[in-house]
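tool=predict chain=A
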Amino acid sequence: MVAVIIGYVPGMGVSRVGKVGVILKIGFFFVCLVVMVSLQSISTFDALKTDDPSFSPAPASHTVDPGSDIDDTPDELEVLTVTDVEGDISEPDIDISSILAGSLELPVAGATGWAAIDMPLYSEASIDSSIRSHFEAGQVFVIIDEFDEWWYVKKSDGESGWVEHRACFINLPDVIPSIVYNVTNAYSALTRSSGYEIPGVTGEILYEAWSFNHRLSRYEFIVPTLYSTSKLLSTAQQLALEAGDTIILHEAYRAHESQQRSVALLRELMEENDEVRSAIEDGPWNLNWFIATSMSNHQRGVAFDVNLGKVLSSETEQIGDFSVKRITEHDVYIMPTQVHELSPLAAIFERPVSSRSRDAWRDVPFTDTMTPGAILLQGYFDSAGFTPLASEWWHFNDLDGVIIASELGINGSFFIEGILSVVP
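tool=predict ok
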């Protein structure tokens, strides 16, 4: 599709390719390489903002008992006991040369983006050009084209111009539709501690993140993340798909206000329940390992909470001129705990390891509760350039993204409201 915009030259959009070497760890062994690619196209703009009044999340999946004695699977999701994803996991036969690291499944043109901080809207792709207006942090736009480090974007009121995309979030389902999105915090939070419900959190809607997506022609979760981080996630998903697996994404960006509310309510539970308090505070861990009491990488848009599924069936869907894979059925690997179990039960390693180090964790033994599925999941994300969080098997950080977000002052000061996505 072609965007006709006064003062805009469509031919300027180009892509850039870089190469990064990485290692794939399956079980205890890693083999992978990474090649940076970005795709783009030009799209028309159609501002929209739609909410579903009868929200009913329906991920095309089965779920599996996570292997604990705690039955914390929400009523909305079917429980299915599966054996073909348990036990030892052999190294998959992956054609590494077919993995294009950093490439997205769909072009950014037509995708929804957000200003992650207050930032200028320039008349040209240069900080020396005139400023047309300013974005407030969290303000939504549709991406029209990409040129080097810039996006040409259009606001919901029709104003257009250039922004530096390093300071922007992108909606993940718009560019990596093959991932299974199941943002449980947007309809029934799974969060517990030592198996206990957290009053005011567990089973609650912590924020809105569900809308009709015209680009995908269906209702889908809204999942923002820093643009550069989205490319690493795409790499992890391509590695998983090559091996017959898929990432199940539970959360990316989380507003600071939502985070702090959960912190306060968990602290209240700790005051009332000695078992919860003791599990968190006695020994090598503390509360910050399970929920950041100040600033989380989720607020910076550079962290993911994920699970892993074995693909049972898929189909090819057409989105504009592009063909992409859509997972229609999957089983979830057996994991140490349910996602968002905020206690040492969910720990990956026997002791805390600095989350700021890229490699310190490599020499630390796994806990006895780590499952082959959790190790496999860690392998995909390690290969893509992420680092694990010692206390949560489901959480992975983009440390390069942390540096970018910290320098820019991205702090999760806003809630996400609506999308403007259109067909590329």
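The CA atoms of residues 19 and 362 lie 23 Å apart. Confidence is low (pLDDT under 50) at residues 1-101.
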